[in-house]
């Protein structure tokens, strides 16, 4: 079953885990961070630095680097195992990031989901300003996306919306792994576990 959602633009904060969690230390990066303000607000603190380095240009304005979008999943730097090199403790707590920007990554044609627009094509309208946390079986992962805009009605929609994901062919659609609602975000493995419990 493909992932589904209940609204076109789901912006509610991610759920809090009810299981006890270790509290990661606060990090104090030594170099200025280049990242969207909305991402910085909505990312866990331990993920801001590595995502900034992975996806944003090292310039004074720090814009998102579209040229680097060549895969869906991004992972924090690996721990260093040498005794002579100390890894930052934040690496033990960092999360994977799903960069769901299908129009940019796969160059697929996506259309406005509103019937009155008669399949008018959507164009990119920038990086979605918020990142969501998705509950998985053992931890969280992060999902970031892009905004799309209809050239007719001018309405915007996030590319992780159900009405956009369902436009993809099955090979691409099954790579969307989570269920996003207005309030909650969880991986489909969680959904299947709950279903199996009846
Ligand atoms: Zn439209």
UniProtKB/TrEMBL annotation:
Residues 1-29 are annotated as: Disordered. Residues 39-197 form the DUF6729 domain. Pfam families: DUF6729. Residues 1-10 have a biased composition (Polar residues). InterPro entries: DUF6729 (IPR046616). Signal peptide: none annotated. This is DUF6729 domain-containing protein. It comes from Mizuhopecten yessoensis. The lineage of its organism: Eukaryota, Metazoa, Spiralia, Lophotrochozoa, Mollusca.
